[in-house]
Every structure is written in structure tokens, then in C-alpha cells.
Write the C-alpha cells for this entry.
Amino acid sequence: MIPCFFHPRQLKFKPNYEWAFGEKIDHPETTARAEGILAALEADAQRFDVRRPTQISEEALLAVHDPRLLQMLRTAEGLRKTDTFYPAVFMRGTDITPDPGQISHAGSFCFDSGTPLNRETWPAARWSASCAVSAAVAVAGGEAKVAYALSRPPGHHATTGLFGGYCYLANSSLAAQSLRTGGAERVAILDIDVHHGNGSQEVFWADPAVLTVSLHGDPTNFFPFFTGFAEEIGGGAGRGTNLNVPLPEGTDGQAYAQALEGALARIADFDPAFLVVAAGVDTYERDPMGNFALTTADLGRVGERIGALGLPTVAVQEGGYYTPHIGRNVEALLLGLAEGMSRRG
Ligand SMILES: [Zn+2]
């Protein structure tokens, strides 16, 4: 049985649109994503045990995040029911100190215009982060070798002080940090979302105890554009504990598997006590936000190879936007993980 965490309040947050390269589009980060995954998990009660998370503590949030970011998200809770705030002013270089109590300053706590705020953003983001930490607790306590957080909204683009890329709180980083706080000497994060995990990279940039590895579309011409290049290897005491593997548009299952082997070897070398998988499934061939060509079967094999590391693993949902197949894709990945783990022994 794989313990899976989800809270219904995560479904109350409904971003309605975004401007993407000049076009107004329906927002891709819909509730249908979580509903599709939930339906797949609940349909297989033999293998998945869906439960509610325990609410994340303020202390756990502050172990990763700047209190001013949290305050800005809480400020959005005061918006009127019908109001949505799209940060559109991203001023820098002024003498004004941004005020996290003022919604018009949200652009100072955010890096893009596609990540809206409304009164349901904070509760949904907090429960999403709670899922990640509850899954980490289940694995740390030895209850399961694999646990899954149905985290939505996603988290791997959120940094210590900025939201963006549909992400508000750094769910995978919060899971990793909670494992560290619980006493693990070393933890690794493997980000298999098709977009670079810039948030996790930033959070643990100078931390030698957390290895961050990300496989993703080459950011030269792909979101998040400014990070994800191979030269970014961590800094200060954390120099050498960040690995970016940018891959070309159209990367298929075979090419991906090859790149994954290198990433897994690096993780095995690091010898972490726990692995957090930032489990985006937007590498899928039909994903509207992705540019890779993995099939559902490929995602199962990716899971198996990761599971074969034999590390206690927390899988945290990140992206994945082709909602008709998102349930089966997540299921394939999770069953692959469990299978790889059991084969190992
Ligand atoms: Zn993504």
C-alpha cells in the first residue's frame, strides 16, 4: 500500500486564465488535474491508501520560506470572493521596501504573471505543502518505503521568497527540509518534471546536505528560461551538490532513460538517507505545457529505475497538464517506483 495524501480544500483554488506569450488562455493548473489523479488512486484501493494530511506547522514553513512571502499569500486571503490579483508590476532597484501586506506589491514576491492570487490560494497552497510533509513523515517513520503527496498547486518553481510558475510554496523542498529536521544527514531531490526545478535549486543552493538533481527541457528556449543550465552546480558549501541535466525538445523515453541513469548514479554516490522525487508528469508526449515525448509506459519505467535505488522515497506531485491521462500517468509512475523497490529486495 502506498500512503497518498490529499485535502479537499486544495480543490477550492481555481486560477481562471493566464496571459501566455500575448494570448489569454484558460489556466492550465486546473482542479481537473488533482481530480484525475485522485480518481485513479481511489479506483485502486488495493494499492493506494488516500488520506488527509496533517496541517504543516509554521515552523516547518519558515525552515524554507521567507516570512514575507507567507505574509503576502495570507494578504491575498483578504481579497473579495470574486477578485483575482495578477501580479503585473515587477519593479526593482527602487528605495521603496515592498510591503507584503499590500496586494499591489505582490510583484515583489513573484517572478511571473501566470501565477494569480485569490482568497483560496493560501489555503490550497498550505494544504498542498502539508501533503508533501505528511508523506515525508510517513516515510521517515518507516511506515512505508514509498509515499505520495497529491500536491496541487505544484511547488518546485517557488523559491524561498518568490512564487511563480503556478507554484506558491516549495512543496518538494519542504518535504526534504522536514526530513533533514527529523535527523537525516543527507537528502536528495530528483526533479523529473519537464521544467527546471529552479525553486529547489535556490532553496538548497549552498546546502551540502541536500543534493538537488533536475532533468528538464533546455531552458535556452523553455520555461523558466533563466535557470536550469548545466553550469549551475551550487555555491559556497553546497558547490557540487546541484546537478542540472537540460535535454533537447522531443526527448523520448529512450534518450530520457539514458540521462536518468547518470542522474541516478550521482544520487547513489551522494548516499542520501531519503529521496524526494519532484514528480511532474509533464514529460508526457501529449502534455500541452511540455516538449518531451514520454509515453505512459516510459513513465512506469522511470519509476522503476528510481525505485531500484532502494531509497525510502517521497513522491511529490509537480506538473502534468494533459488531464485526460494524468491519472494513469501518475499511477504508472508510482507503481513503477514500488515495483523497482520491491525487486531490489
Ligand atoms: Zn512542469
The beta strands are 2-5, 17-20, 23-26, 48-51, 146-149, 187-191, 210-217, 242-247, 274-279, 313-317. The chain has a mean pLDDT of 97.
